[in-house]
Every structure is written in structure tokens, then in C-alpha cells.
Design a protein that fits this description.
With 262 residues, the chain is an alpha+beta fold. It folds into 2 domains: 218 residues, Alpha-Beta Plaits (2-Layer Sandwich); 39 residues. 33% of the residues lie in helices and 13% in strands. It contains 8 helices and 9 strands. A 3-stranded mixed beta sheet has the order 8-1-9. It has a two-stranded antiparallel ribbon with strand order 2-3. The radius of gyration is 20 Å and the shape is globular. The mean pLDDT is 85. The chain binds iron/sulfur cluster (3 copies). One iron/sulfur cluster binds next to α1 and β3.
Length: 262
């Protein structure tokens, strides 16, 4: 089974945002959220699944879900709306999600976003263009295909790790001798090479190399009952709205079958 990954080389990124634009267009994420919900239009959001962090040294660092090998968001989701695919992509089913946002609390990278401005909000994040790649609609994710400098590339994780090691060995003066994502939180499917530290660009030093799911379950196990009650209430609202939507769709379809007669 192929295990897909993305390797981003910060030294090659020119900050053009072609990756951001391609993601929004291909995934139909819609416009940026209203200012009220997203004061910084360049920040990661429900309609911006990837963006660029700017380091103090003037580098640009792509930010998006890291597709952890042992994802905390999956462990934390009480209804199985988040799942890790055999190919490594961590994907999300909005039909199952009840909007409790436990995945947002559990993610060690803070990569999931919520549709705060929507009446029926969902969690949104990078999905590694999983369905489009698996169905053959895309040969690779839209973001990597769009990058004009090949700063961000798609491939098998082991092959990309080998390529990263090759670059570190070939140009040792160019890079910090580290592959971000090889070991952090048990390893991720999004890997980085850089010539500047990435602590302030989404890779805090406190991450450690141990997977977080157990920790996520322990922390969420201590969540107060009032919060759990909110989650149950969320599910009730979700179920009611979803049911109304399905009934409306069924009625609409019957009207169509009847030729639109009243
Ligand atoms: S980065 Fe966060 S949202 Fe993405 S797979 Fe890891 S825990 Fe889940
Ligand atoms: S892999 Fe797909 S969903 Fe993820 S940032 Fe790239 S284009 Fe967007
Ligand atoms: S498309 Fe490539 S060069 Fe442009 S911002 Fe994205 S990663 Fe950087």
C-alpha cells in the first residue's frame, strides 16, 4: 500500500501563494470568512486549508494539516467523523461530524478550523486531496501541482524521506540538519526541510516524538460534564437540522416526480 506524503522545502518557497489559490479553487472552499470570524484574512481558516507563515528571517512556510501517522484528532472524535486512510491522509466526513470540536482541542498543531459563520458549521482542514487523487481526477494534490519552484512536492513518504536525506547530504551548508515530521508526534505525512528554525512556524519544540492520541483521550476524559453536555446538545441540533434537510430534500424530489403539481 502506497503511503502518500508532501515534502516542503522552505529554502525553495518564494511566497507566491499559488498553492493557497489552487487549494481554494480545487476544493471549492469559498471566500474567506467575514472579518468578524477571521480578523486575519491570511490565517488558516475554514475556507483557507493551507496558508503561509512568515518567519522573522523572511522565509515563507506552508501551513496545513500534517496528516499525523497516529492522529490525535481521530482518537478524539467521539463519532468517527475523522479517520486515517491506509494511504496516510487524515480525512473528515461532514455527514457524521456533530460539531463538538474535540478534534480541534486534540490537534497538537492546531490545524483544524470551524465554520463559525455557518448556520450548520463543520470542521474544515486539508484532506491531502484524498478523494480526487484516489479517483484519478488528480495526479497529485492541487497545491503541489501548482508550485512553480517545486518547493512543495507530493510522493510516497519513504521516497520523500530519502530525497530529503539526499538534499541534506548534498548541501549541508544550505539546511538545518533536520527533517521536520520524520519523528515529531510519532511522525507525520507532511515533511519539511528548512534553513531556519520552524518553532515559530508551526513546529513548537514542545511537540516531542511520542504520538499524542493517548494524551488526547486522557485530556478529553477529564473534560467537565458541562462540556460533554454541550457536545450532546450540539449533536441534538445537528441531528434536527440534518433531519429537516433530508425531509426537505425528499419532499422536493417528490414534487419533481409529480411534475411540480401543488
Ligand atoms: S495535524 Fe492535527 S488535524 Fe492533522 S492529522 Fe494531525 S492531529 Fe489531525
Ligand atoms: S493537499 Fe489538497 S486539500 Fe491539502 S492543502 Fe493541498 S490542495 Fe489543499
Ligand atoms: S506555490 Fe510553492 S513557491 Fe509558491 S507559496 Fe506555495 S510552496 Fe511557496
Amino acid at each position: 500500500m502506497k503511503h502518500f506524503a508532501i515534502l516542503t522545502d522552505v529554502t525553495r518557497c518564494i511566497g507566491c501563494e499559488a498553492c493557497v489559490e489552487a487549494c481554494q479553487k480545487t476544493n471549492g472552499t469559498g471566500d474567506d470568512a467575514p472579518h468578524r470570524w477571521q480578523p486575519d484574512p491570511n490565517a488558516l481558516s475554514s475556507s483557507r486549508w493551507t496558508t503561509l507563515a512568515h518567519t522573522r528571517e523572511g522565509r515563507f512556510v506552508r501551513v496545513h494539516c500534517r496528516h499525523c501517522l497516529d492522529p490525535s484528532c481521530v482518537a478524539a472524535c467521539p463519532v468517527g467523523a475523522m479517520r486515517r486512510t491506509p494511504q496516510g491522509a487524515v480525512v473528515y466526513d461532514p455527514e457524521i461530524c456533530m460539531g463538538c470540536r474535540y478534534c480541534m482541542i486534540a490537534c497538537p498543531f492546531r490545524m483544524t478550523r470551524y465554520e463559525w459563520s455557518s448556520a450548520v458549521p463543520k470542521v474544515r482542514k486539508c484532506i491531502l486531496c484524498y478523494q480526487k487523487v484516489m479517483s484519478g481526477e488528480l495526479e497529485q494534490p492541487a497545491c503541489t501541482a501548482a508550485c512553480p519552484t517545486k518547493a512543495t512536492v507530493f510522493g510516497e513518504r519513504e521516497a520523500l524521506l530519502a530525497e530529503a536525506r539526499r538534499r541534506l547530504a548534498a548541501e549541508p551548508e544550505r539546511y538545518i540538519q533536520h527533517i521536520w515530521g520524520e519523528h515529531e508526534v510519532g511522525g507525520t505525512s507532511v515533511l519539511y526541510l528548512s534553513d531556519v528554525p520552524l518553532d515559530e512556524a508551526g513546529w513548537p519544540r514542545t511537540l516531542g516524538d511520542h504520538p499524542r492520541p493517548k494524551l488526547a483521550r486522557e485530556v478529553l476524559g477529564t473534560v467537565p460534564w458541562t462540556f460533554a453536555g454541550v457536545a450532546v446538545a450540539c449533536y441534538g441540533v445537528h441531528w434536527t437540522l440534518d433531519r429537516r434537510r433530508k425531509v426537505a430534500a425528499a419532499e422536493h424530489s417528490h414534487e419533481d416526480e409529480d411534475g411540480g403539481e401543488q
